[in-house]
Design goal:
The protein has helices at 6-14, 17-27, 30-37, 78-94, 103-118; strands at 68-70, 99-101. By secondary structure, the protein is mainly alpha-helical. Helix 4 (78-94) links the parallel strand 1 (68-70) and strand 2 (99-101). It has two domains: 6-52, no CATH class; 64-118, no CATH class. InterPro entries: IPNS-like_sf.
Length: 128
């Protein structure tokens, strides 16, 4: 627990964050202006008020995983295709996205990979 001196408590009581934010905004100098002025300590307006934070974090309560859908066999088997399409529809409606998994996807990526490696980068100086 942090102990506070009487001067720190007095400073907290008279600190008017809104006024300081307005004054900072009116300077139009921004953070670069503060750096150019040679400040050595970060102004209080850049710290979030402590009373706005919860003491306990809820971040550990949620566990997310990206749905992975195997696309193998969709081009050959109509039953498999329907099953995969149902999974795609469900993932799209529920999550808004999914990760496709199949030999087709990997093979296509590898097939075009060498073209990207061998492609010459054209800069403005060189022209087309």
């Amino acid at each position: 627990m942090k102990s506070s001196s009487s001067t720190e408590v007095a400073e907290e009581q008279i600190y008017d964050r809104i006024s300081e934010l307005i004054a900072f905004d009116e300077t139009k100098a921004g953070v670069k202006g503060l750096v150019d002025a040679g400040i050595t300590k970060v102004p209080r307006i850049f710290f979030s008020p402590v009373d706005g934070f919860d003491k306990v974090s809820d971040s550990g309560k949620f566990e997310f995983c990206i749905p992975v859908i195997d696309l193998d066999g969709v081009e050959k088997d109509p039953v498999s295709r329907k099953h995969v399409m149902d999974k795609v529809r469900d993932a799209s409606e529920t999550w808004g996205f999914f990760q496709p998994e199949s030999g087709i996807v990997r093979g296509t990526a590898v097939f075009h990979w060498h073209e990207e490696l061998n492609a010459k980068e054209i800069t403005k100086e060189e022209g087309p």
